[in-house]
Amino acid sequence: MARITLDHIRHAYGPNPKSDADYALREVDHEWRDGGAYALLGPSGCGKTTLLNIISGLLQPSHGRILFDGQDVTNLSTQARNIAQVFQFPVIYDTMTVYDNLAFPLRNRRVPEPEVDRRVRDILEMIDLGGMAKRKAQGLTADQKQKISLGRGLVRNDVNAILFDEPLTVIDPHMKWVLRSQLKRLHKQFGFTMVYVTHDQTEALTFADKVVVMYEGQIVQIGTPAELFERPSHTFVGYFIGSPGMNVLPVQLQGNAVRIGSETLSLDYAPQAAAGAKTELGIRPEFVNIGREGMPVTVNRVEDIGRQKIVRATFAGQPIAIVVTEDSEIPADARVTFDPAAINIYANSWRVGREG
Ligand code: ADP
Ligand code: MG
């Protein structure tokens, strides 16, 4: 187990990168706490796999250093970094039995055979392949092969970290849930540093203590699920976490207030932004109140989503979503208010904090 530090990591796949757009990773500075369970969440193409491969040593970054417990490992091989990595698609030995596939990484490290046997059987149980130990991996289903890959990543208990790159993509939904809780249990038991890549927010929010959100080659926020929901540090996090995502409305700042179209909203603080910055107000659909009080709004349509309804409306010339309970009445001349504590202000897409 190790604390992993990424120090000013930049990476470009092509030669002669000129602008930020040429970098798959732009500037990543982050410390993964020893024994932490992290989810790395972000849309396809934002740089998640690139980042994992840089941590494990499969890829050499264009700039920056990687440290394990303060020791520079940037020039060490994958083998020397002692990291287990599970990929999105199975990486196994087809001609070996299921048992030998799992035993391989242990025998490679000269673990005594009785201990190999104990650990392999334990993991076989966990991945629900106990009955298939003697079968050749060849001919198994994609789902079973992926479980073997997962097992191979988990069988060693002396690794510095385990990196998972969307490992459950090909696993059926029920088994996904089972394996995820097993991973959580193993994490508690052995205290591995775990980084779990996913583009699925539910998966991230249930697995991890801390969620690291990536966007366009950068880490834009690290936080607990509640922090990501309540205080998105970047408008992207607001859109990406939650369903429907956060409403983002263009505003003008005026001291302790903001102007939206012809409406003025008072705040309990004065957000600061550089002159000329694009300023916006973020409010989650759950924290917009619709009724007879407040600012005028035009309701366009109402979508039923089980125990809740999403009201699609126009407010100050902008589209806005409002989430209400299924029994809510929406008056014809509806008006809205925003929960003051749930308002976030953004300048050039980044959240402007409250002073003090
Ligand atoms: P993610 O895993 O979040 O989907 P990736 O790390 O795979 O993102 O990709 C980040 C960016 O780098 C993307 O724009 C992708 O097209 C590019 N990229 C990834 N791998 C390569 C490669 N081998 N060669 C060139 N560009 C690549
Ligand atoms: Mg990827």
Summarize the topology:
Blueprint: E1 4-11, E2 25-32, E3 37-41, H1 48-56, E4 63-68, E5 71-72, H2 78-81, E6 83-86, H3 98-108, H4 113-126, H5 142-154, E7 161-165, H6 173-190, E8 194-198, H7 201-207, E9 210-215, E10 218-223, H8 225-230, H9 235-240, E11 247-250, E12 252-254, E13 257-260, E14 263-266, E15 279-283, E16 288-291, E17 295-296, E18 298-305, E19 308-315, E20 318-325, E21 335-338, E22 344-347, E23 350-351
Parallel strand pairs: 3-8, 3-9, 6-7, 7-8
Antiparallel strand pairs: 1-2, 1-4, 4-5, 9-10, 11-15, 12-13, 13-14, 15-22, 16-21, 17-21, 18-19, 19-20, 22-23
Helix pairs in contact: 3-4, 3-5
The structure holds adenosine-5'-diphosphate (ADP) and magnesium ion (MG).
Residues 13, 24, 42, 44-50 line the site of adenosine-5'-diphosphate.
Question: Can you walk through the features of this model?
Answer:
This protein is an alpha+beta fold and 356 residues long. The protein has two domains: 227 residues, Rossmann fold (3-Layer(aba) Sandwich), CATH 3.40.50.300; 107 residues, OB fold (Dihydrolipoamide Acetyltransferase, E2P) (Beta Barrel). Helix content is 25%, strand content 32%. The protein contains nine helices and 23 strands. The protein has a six-stranded mixed beta sheet with strand order 6-7-8-3-9-10, sandwiched between helices. Strands 2-1-4-5 form a four-stranded antiparallel beta sheet, with helices on one face. Strands 11-15-22-23 form a four-stranded antiparallel beta sheet. A hairpin with a 2-residue loop joins strand 9 and strand 10. Helix 3 packs across helix 4 and helix 3 packs parallel to helix 5. The model has no long low-confidence stretch (mean pLDDT 92). It binds adenosine-5'-diphosphate and magnesium ion (MG). The site of magnesium ion (MG) has 3 residues, from helix 1.
